[in-house]
Design brief:
Bound molecules: (2~{S})-4-acetamido-2-azanyl-butanoic acid
Mean pLDDT: 96
Structural class: mainly beta
Low-confidence stretches: none
Largest sheet: 6 strands, antiparallel
Distance between the termini: 19 Å
Number of helices: 1
Order of helices and strands: HEEEEEEEEEE
CATH topology of one domain: Jelly Rolls
Helix content: under 10%
Length: 130
């Protein structure tokens, strides 16, 4: 069994800080679960174009308010506590945070640990571990 406390993980290299967001990666590839699991904070006012071409991601909003735009359809969906979205088609999207948002995120395949977005909004398949 694996048990980790977010407060402890926040003090380690599991916490990755980037432009407009930070994410603490509670489960990673090394844990051999077949997915990674993260608690992500999107800072208030952030507008994040993302396109995970190498990963499927699902996201559950724990707190905060914002929106997600599906670039393929142009449709914008409200994101608030209780809303889940799944990028089941590696969807190109823009996430906007009206207020700070806390999100629980799952990635398949799992992240290694230190991934941040490249110029296309994707994460590479091979990145440094924690
Ligand atoms: C919600 C979202 O995709 N934010 C970007 C960070 C990502 N979830 C991560 O690396 O944990």
């Amino acid at each position: 069994m694996i048990v980790r406390d977010l407060k402890d993980a926040d003090q380690t290299r599991r916490r990755v800080v980037s432009k407009g967001w930070e994410s603490t990666r509670l489960l990673l590839k090394d844990d051999k679960m077949g997915f990674s699991f993260h608690i992500t904070t999107i800072y208030a006012g952030a507008e994040l174009p993302m396109h995970y071409q190498n990963h499927l991601e699902s996201v559950y909003c724990i707190s905060g308010e914002g929106s997600i735009t599906d670039k393929a359809t142009g449709k914008t969906h409200a994101v608030h506590p209780g809303v889940m979205y799944a990028l089941n088609e590696n969807d190109d999207h823009i996430l906007r945070a009206k207020s700070e948002m806390k999100m629980a995120c799952v990635f398949n395949p799992p992240l290694n640990g230190r991934e941040v977005h490249d110029d296309t909004g994707a994460y590479p398949l091979e990145a440094e571990g924690v």
